[in-house]
From TrEMBL:
This is Replication restart protein PriA. Keywords: ATP-binding, DNA replication, DNA-binding, Helicase, Hydrolase, Isomerase, Metal-binding, Nucleotide-binding, Primosome, Zinc. It comes from Acidihalobacter yilgarnensis. Binds 2 zinc ions per subunit. Initiates the restart of stalled replication forks, which reloads the replicative helicase on sites other than the origin of replication. Recognizes and binds to abandoned replication forks and remodels them to uncover a helicase loading site. Promotes assembly of the primosome at these replication forks. Pfam families: DEAD, PriA_3primeBD, PriA_C, Zn_ribbon_PriA. The keyword DNA-binding applies. Zn(2+) 1 binds at C444, C447, C484, C487. It comes from the Bacteria.
Length: 739
DNA sequence: AGCACGCCGACT
DNA sequence: GTCGGCGTGCTC
C-alpha cells in the first residue's frame, strides 16, 4: 500500500517569515486547480489571513499531520500574473525580505485585505437636473456654495470624482453630503476608468528629441528588452520624448508604465498625458482613496489601461502587455523605499523590463552615478538632450566666496545686492536653504550650553514663530527657555540660519516686498503646498524662500535669480553620496531659473570656492562633475565600483545594538570567504534617535554574487542569534544613504 | 507580526 | 493564594 504525498498549495502569508507556507487546497478543490497568483484565506495559528498562492499542486515540504486546508480561494483567475509573481519572488530574494511582506507592498490595500475584484466602480457626483442657479437653499454655507458653484459652472452633463473634488480641501465630503441631502447633487457609480479625452496636437520634435525617440524605439518596432539613459538638461523636453515613446508602445499594442517621483505626479502632468492620449490612463499615487486605487490597479492588471502612471510602488502593478517603462527623474531618492521592504523601484523596473521583454528608459538631467556607470559601460543606450527647448541660454552659475565676509543672517553683501537688483527690476528671486526653522542651534553666551534633544542628543532647532525648540529627528519639543538651565544667564541666542530667520531678515531688509516661504512648516496643512506653489505664479511674491522641497520638478518661469545660501553642508558631510547629491541639487535648483526669454543666474555661497567638485561642476557641468565623483568612488571602492548591504540595529540599551552586530559579524565572518568585507559595527551617524541607540554593520563586496550568497546563508544564522531578539534590526541591500 | 506558554513580583 | 510582567518559541 502506498500513501502518496499530499499535494498542496504554497501560500505567501503576510508575516515576517522567510518561507511560504504549505496548505491543503480549500474544500472541494484540487490543489493543482488552485490558480497560481490567486488569493486564498488561510488560518495561521489562530489568526485568519489573506495570502497569495505562489505554487500549486506541489508535494508538501512539511509533515502531512501539520497541514491545514486553506479556507477559501478568493479569485477564480490569478489576481497577480506570472510576470508580477516573478517580480515579487525576485524582490523577496534580492532584498532578502519575507515574501509575504513583498506581496503586501505589491497589492493595493483593499485587495490585500481580501476585498473582491468585481469592478464596482468609483463614486462620482453630478448636479441634479434643473437646479435653480440662484442656489436659494444654500445661502450661508460657504463650502457647500463653493462646491455647488463648481458643479453649476461645469454643468449637469459632467460627473466629478473624488480626484476633482479633493481640490476643495480636506473636508469636502461633509458639505457634499449636505448638498445631496438637499437634492441638489446626485451620486452615481462610474465604471472604473474612463478614457481620457486626448485630442491635443502633437508638437514636432526637435532633432535631438527625434533622434532619442528613434534610437530608443524605432518606428514600427516590436519591443525587446533594452535599457536607455535619457540625459536631458532641465527644460530640454524629456517629457515630449516619453510621450512619443508611449505612442509607439501603444501602436505596438503594448502597455506603458511611467514611474515618477513622489512630488512628480502633479495634476498638470496627468492633464498633459490625458490631453494627448484618448485611452484610459491609470494614475497610482498616495492621494488616492482605497477604492480608487483598487480600481486603477485592476484596470491596469486587466490590460485595459494602456498607460499607468505612478510612484514607486506602481512598479509592482501587473501589466500583461507591458512594452515600455519610463522612470522619470531616475536619480530621485523617493524611488527607494526607506522602510520595511527597502527596494529601489528603478532597479526593479529594469529587472522587470528584462523579464518581460520591455524597453526601459531612465530620464534625468542629473543621472545617478550607477546609471551613468552602466551607460558608460555600454550596458544602457545613452541619449542626450543638450539644449533647452525654445530657450537660448542655460543659467549662469557663479560661486560667492563667503570666507571672512560679513554676513547678514547668512547672506553676503553681493548676494543681498543681487537680490535687491532683481527685485527692483520686477523679477522673481528664489533663495534656497535646506534648513527649516529659525536657527539650528540655541546657545548660552554665558557658559556655552546648547539646547539638545534629550532623546536624540542633537541640537534642537529654534522655531521663532512658535517660540519653541523642536527636534528635527523626533517628535520632541519644548517651550523656548527664558534662561540657560546651567548658568541662569538669560536669553540664549540663536546660532546659524534657517528659512524662518532668512524670511524675517529679508522682510526687514525689503519691507515692501512680498515673501513666500515654502518648507515643511508652511506646508503642513493638506493642500497648503499646492496653494503656495500656485501663489508663486501670482506675481505677489518677488521673493521665494525654500528648502529641498522647492528643488524638485516645479517650474518657476519668472525666477531669474537663484541663491544657494549654504552649499558647504554637502561638501563636509561624511556620507559617501554627499557629493553626488550636492551636484544633483545644485543643477536641479539651477534648473528652476530662467525658463523663458530671461536667462537665469545662480549664485552659490561657499567657504570652499576652490573645491574641485564645485569648480568642475561650474566650469564643465554635471557630466564632468559626475566623472570626478566616479573617480572618488573608484578610489575609495564605493558603489558603483562595489556592492553594499547595510545591517542596521537599534535598541533602548546603549551597548545592545553593538553587541548584536558583533555577534552578527562573528556569525558572518566564517562565511565571508575573503570576498566580502565586514565594515563595523560602527555607531550610526546619529548614534541615538528618539531615545534608541543605533549602530550599523556595512557589508561590501566587489561583485554581487558573494554578497548575496553570504546574506542567503547568513540571515538564518542571524535570526537564530539570541541577541537578535533584543534589538530591532533591518537589512538594506544597495543602501542609498548610510543613515 | 500575533499569540500562547511559562516562570517570577505586588495585589485582592 | 492569584494577576500580569515580557522572554521564548511557533505559526503550514
Amino acid at each position: 500500500m502506498t500513501t502518496s504525498l499530499p499535494k498542496v498549495i504554497r501560500v505567501a502569508v503576510p508575516l515576517p517569515l522567510r518561507e511560504a507556507f504549505d496548505y491543503l487546497p480549500p474544500p472541494g478543490m484540487d490543489a493543482a486547480a488552485v490558480p497560481i497568483g490567486a488569493r486564498v484565506t488561510v488560518r495561521v495559528g489562530r489568526q485568519r489571513l489573506v495570502g497569495l498562492v505562489c505554487e500549486a499542486g506541489v508535494a508538501s515540504r512539511v509533515d502531512a499531520a501539520r497541514l491545514r486546508p486553506a479556507q477559501a480561494c478568493l479569485d477564480e483567475v490569478p489576481l497577480v500574473d506570472a510576470y508580477t509573481l516573478a517580480l515579487i519572488r525576485f524582490a523577496a530574494d534580492y532584498y532578502h525580505h519575507p515574501i509575504g511582506e513583498v506581496v503586501m507592498n505589491a497589492l493595493p490595500g483593499l485587495l490585500r485585505e481580501g476585498v473582491g475584484v468585481d469592478a464596482a466602480g468609483i463614486e462620482v457626483w453630478r448636479l441634479a437636473p434643473a437646479v435653480d442657479a440662484s442656489h436659494a437653499s444654500v445661502t450661508r454655507a460657504a463650502r457647500q456654495r463653493a462646491l455647488l458653484d463648481y458643479f453649476t459652472t461645469l454643468g449637469a452633463d459632467r460627473a466629478h470624482g473624488p480626484e476633482a473634488l479633493a481640490g476643495f480641501g480636506d473636508g469636502w465630503r461633509a458639505p457634499l453630503r449636505q448638498l445631496m441631502d438637499k437634492g441638489l447633487v446626485l451620486r452615481e457609480r462610474r465604471p472604473c476608468l474612463a478614457a481620457s479625452p486626448g485630442g491635443d496636437a502633437w508638437p514636432t520634435l526637435n532633432p535631438a528629441q527625434a533622434e532619442a525617440v528613434a534610437g530608443i524605439w524605432p518606428a514600427e518596432a516590436t519591443p525587446v528588452f533594452a535599457a536607455h539613459l535619457l540625459e536631458g538638461v532641465t527644460g530640454s523636453g524629456k517629457t515630449e520624448v516619453y510621450l512619443h515613446l508611449i505612442e509607439r508602445a501603444l501602436a505596438a499594442g503594448r502597455q506603458a508604465l511611467v514611474l515618477v517621483p513622489e512630488i512628480g505626479l502633479t495634476p498638470q502632468l496627468l492633464a498633459r498625458f490625458r490631453s494627448r492620449f484618448a485611452v484610459p490612463i491609470a494614475a497610482l499615487h498616495s492621494g488616492l482613496g482605497d477604492a480608487e486605487r483598487r480600481c486603477a490597479w485592476l484596470t491596469a492588471a486587466a490590460g485595459e489601461a494602456p498607460i499607468v502612471i505612478g510612484t514607486r510602488s506602481a512598479v509592482f502593478t501587473p501589466l500583461p502587455r507591458l512594452g515600455l517603462i519610463v522612470v522619470d527623474e531616475e536619480h530621485d531618492g523617493s524611488f527607494k523605499q526607506q522602510e520595511n521592504l527597502r527596494y529601489h523601484a528603478r532597479d526593479l523596473a529594469i529587472w522587470r523590463a528584462r523579464a518581460q521583454g520591455a524597453c526601459v528608459v531612465l530620464g534625468s538631467a542629473t543621472p545617478s552615478l550607477e546609471t551613468l556607470h552602466h551607460a558608460r559601460a555600454g550596458r544602457y543606450g545613452h541619449h542626450r538632450l543638450r539644449r533647452r527647448a525654445g530657450m537660448a541660454k542655460p543659467p549662469a552659475l557663479r560661486l560667492l566666496d563667503i570666507r571672512h565676509k560679513r554676513l547678514d543672517a547668512g547672506l553676503s553683501g553681493p548676494m543681498l545686492a543681487a537680490v535687491g537688483e532683481r527685485i527692483k527690476a520686477g523679477e522673481q528671486v528664489l533663495l534656497f536653504l535646506n534648513r527649516r526653522g529659525y536657527a539650528p542651534v540655541l546657545i548660552c553666551q554665558g557658559c556655552g550650553w546648547l539646547a539638545r534633544c534629550p532623546r536624540c542628543d542633537v541640537p534642537m532647532t529654534y522655531h521663532a514663530q512658535a517660540r519653541r525648540l523642536r527636534c528635527h529627528h523626533c517628535e520632541y519639543e519644548t517651550p523656548l527657555p527664558a534662561a540657560c538651565p546651567e548658568c541662569k544667564q538669560v536669553d540664549p541666542v540663536p546660532l546659524g540660519q534657517g528659512t524662518e530667520r532668512l524670511e524675517s531678515i529679508l522682510a526687514a531688509r525689503f519691507p515692501e516686498v512680498g515673501i513666500l516661504r515654502i518648507d515643511r512648516d508652511t506646508t503642513r496643512r493638506r493642500g497648503a503646498l499646492a496653494e503656495r506653489l500656485e501663489a508663486v505664479h501670482s506675481g505677489d511674491y518677488p521673493l521665494l524662500i525654500g528648502t529641498q522641497m522647492l528643488t524638485k520638478g516645479h517650474h518657476f518661469p519668472s525666477v531669474t535669480l537663484v541663491g544657494v545660501i549654504d552649499a558647504d553642508q554637502g561638501l563636509y558631510s561624511v556620507d559617501y553620496r554627499a557629493h553626488e547629491r550636492l551636484a544633483q541639487l545644485l543643477v536641479q535648483v539651477a534648473g528652476r531659473a530662467g525658463r523663458e526669454e530671461q536667462p537665469g543666474e545662480v549664485l552659490i555661497q561657499t567657504c570652499q570656492p576652490e573645491h574641485p567638485l564645485l569648480i568642475t561642476l561650474l566650469r564643465d557641468g554635471y557630466p564632468a562633475a559626475a566623472e570626478v565623483i566616479l573617480g572618488e568612488r573608484k578610489a575609495t571602492g564605493m558603489p558603483p565600483y562595489s556592492h553594499l548591504a547595510l545591517l542596521r540595529a537599534e535598541a533602548p540599551g546603549e551597548s545592545v545594538p553593538d553587541d548584536f552586530l558583533n555577534a552578527v559579524a562573528g556569525a558572518l565572518s566564517p562565511l565571508a570567504g575573503g570576498e566580502v568585507d565586514l565594515l563595523g559595527p560602527v555607531p550610526a551617524p546619529m548614534p541615538r534617535r528618539a531615545g534608541r541607540y543605533r549602530a550599523q554593520l556595512l557589508l561590501r563586496a566587489a561583485t554581487r554574487a558573494p554578497l548575496h550568497r553570504l546574506l542567503r546563508e547568513g540571515l538564518p544564522r542571524i535570526d537564530a542569534l539570541p541577541e537578535a531578539r533584543r534589538v530591532r534590526w533591518s537589512l538594506d541591500v544597495d543602501p542609498v544613504d548610510l543613515y
